[in-house]
Design goal:
single chain; 244 residues; alpha/beta; six-stranded parallel beta sheet; 6 strands; globular
Length: 244
């Protein structure tokens, strides 16, 4: 049976937002999906705390828990929020987020910057190739430009000067973790670490041919998995209430 779900797509990386659009369009066909955007100004410090406070101010307006989704850095924000305010979260869906949230394309970029004695633009093209696979040079150059703007303008855990540490941990709300099987940023060993933090009712799913932006490559497959999980959460919630 199909149900209508209140869902919120988090977007704290506007430069990479186009990778989310195909999936969000398919989810909107099945249920209600709102989008929450966070954008920093050039003079604003990169601060996770400010982002989390603003997200909480928004979600306090809702009378019941909501399903939260996010890819990459946006998913990390959702994860931190679910740890802090589990009562506000009906479920959390993470796309391309590792059990150790500090492992990301940003951390790979800064590692490569330290290893490769070349221009920033060349390092970013290499990161784009890792994220997307063997596309033609013009496509990789376009993606590299998007990554460059994301580094300069958007919320991030790391910089050349410092690294943010976040301890891996489980969360109370139901959790769906989706990752691309061919993602070289979150390699198989990194993905297996989720086994330590998944509880009963949580699910880990791999997109068979997907890379880091697997939800852009296979939006319908990913949408089907998410909706199916929400159905499971809906059926499971009355049983949890009775047990409580």
């Amino acid at each position: 049976m199909n149900h209508q779900y209140d869902a919120l797509w988090l977007s704290v990386s506007p430069q990479l937002q186009r990778f989310d659009q195909r999936l969000s369009q398919r989810l909107i066909k099945a249920t209600t999906v709102r989008q929450w955007n966070y954008r920093q100004t050039a003079d604003e410090p990169c601060c996770l705390e400010t982002c989390l406070i603003l997200l909480h101010d928004y979600l306090k307006q809702h009378s019941r828990p909501i399903h939260i989704l996010g890819h990459g850095m946006s998913g990390i924000v959702g994860l931190l929020y679910a740890r802090r305010h589990p009562e506000r979260v009906a479920s959390l869906t993470l796309l391309s987020v590792g059990a150790n949230p500090t492992v990301s394309w940003h951390s790979h970029y800064y590692a490569l910057r330290n290893l490769l004695p070349c221009k920033r633009s060349m390092v970013l093209v290499q990161v784009a190739r890792l994220l997307c696979g063997p596309y033609c040079p013009s496509v990789l150059k376009t993606v590299a430009g998007m990554l460059e703007k994301d580094l300069d303008e958007c919320l991030a855990l790391h910089s050349l000067a410092s690294r943010t540490a976040i301890q891996p941990d489980s969360i109370k709300p139901p959790l769906l973790v989706c990752q691309g099987k061919l993602d070289v940023i979150l390699d198989p060993n990194t993905q297996l670490r989720w086994d330590q933090y998944l509880k009963d009712g949580d699910r880990f799913w791999q997109c068979p041919e997907g890379r880091h932006f697997f939800h852009y490559e296979y939006p319908q497959m990913v949408a089907d998995e998410i909706i199916a999980y929400w159905e499971t959460v809906f059926e499971y919630a009355p049983l949890m209430a009775q047990a409580a």
